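Entry 14. Structure prediction run on the chain below.
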Amino acid sequence: MILFVGLGNPSPDNENNRHNIGFKIIDAINKKFSLSKQKPKFKGLLTTGNIGNKKVYAIKPLTFMNNSGICIRELIEYFKIEAENVIVFHDDLDVDFGKIKTKFGGSSAGHNGIESIDKFIGKDYSRVRIGIGKPNGSADVTNHVLKDFDEEEKVELENITSNITSSIPILLDKKLDLFSSTVNNK
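Output returned:
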């Protein structure tokens, strides 16, 4: 069993924020692979289904970014999913806009959603870091991540999302380096 987690904030005002890119990826995975209808469970919106021969759960925590770990812990304890079978999609300031980096474990780099997950399940899970770039000049980081994507970025985001969803079978096999190079080279 694999658990996909998309990080974001559930309020309608945050729907198109850079910080909500994880939610967008989960929505795209749900659509592409015809996972079940989203149901409110485990303090999140949960979908289930199969991709290839793997049972997949996908969740968008409704606990707001800073408490994402609460939702994840409840779900993995209930379904007996090992932390190493959790794959989290999230925004990353330290990655250029539109680029993808993957990693297993490691530092949260100050990302509050990742810090929360680390606190509740440890660090032994995979992360798909989706670049949103740094703010220009002296712009505030908080304002940058909570700002909506502009029109040009939205077009690029559709390409990124498509590249990620078409490469999901590679990710399910936990070939993180191959996944990121495949997505970045499309």
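The longest strand covers residues 44-51.
Filed with the rest of this week's runs.
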